[in-house]
Write a structure and sequence with these properties.
By secondary structure, this protein is α+β, with helices and mostly antiparallel strands. The chain folds into two domains: 21-37 and 141-225, Outer membrane lipoprotein wza domain like (Outer membrane lipoprotein wza fold like, Roll); 51-138, wza like fold (2-Layer Sandwich), CATH 3.30.1950.10. Helices cover 27% and strands 24% of the residues. A hairpin with a 3-residue loop joins strand 3 and strand 4.
Length: 259
Amino acid sequence: MKKILIISLISLLFNSCIPTKNLTYFQGNPQKKTTIHKAQQAPYRLQINDLIDIKIKATDEKLVALFKNVENTTNTNISSDKLYFESYSVDRNGMIRIPYLNEINVLGYTTKEVRLKIETELSKMFKNMDDIFVTVKLAGIKYTVIGEVKSPGTKVLFQNQVNIIEAIANSGDINMTGNRKKVTIIRNNINGVKKIHLDLTGFEFMNSEGYFIQPNDIISIEPLKEKSWGTGDTGTKTISTIITSLSLITTTFLLIKNL
């Protein structure tokens, strides 16, 4: 009986501890390639609910005032709430509304293509376009992280591009009990919903279409099977939990025996 108990405890200890190989990113060596991330670096095409930052600058301040949001400033400390109210949101029909230019279809267009469309509309109103400068860019990249991360939730990064490692790092990294081999991106675009599976323990994911995240992506990290044991994510925690459990079992047994 004692041998069976000891074997069971040893088996529990080994099965509940998480191997280092399951916690390490970028294992092995990257493959040498002449072309790098061509597909991932293709210009992003705008989708419904995207937020766009549009600025129209000119030497004539009166002209600029016609298109400038009243609260729009150069302050870099912008909250996601403020961003929502001050940016141009792509509605369910793929349109944005700009003062004096009315509605413009941007669904499926790149930010460069949208800029050219705005410049075309402005040229109909103003003869001299040399003094007018238009910039169009995404008003941050919003995404949601769920599952085994230290800080799940919806995040916004004010960058032109964000890769999966940056997105996860911004959520406090994956927990010890998170499965780095089973990271899923749920992407909703004009072509429908797509699931992209990534293994972050190697280098191959850097060639995936999911390496760079897109606005409104959902990133899901599955738990390791060790989490279901509930005995701890390190050897020390596991041993501590086992000792506590044994003490409780022994105490209960002695109490019942002495009744």
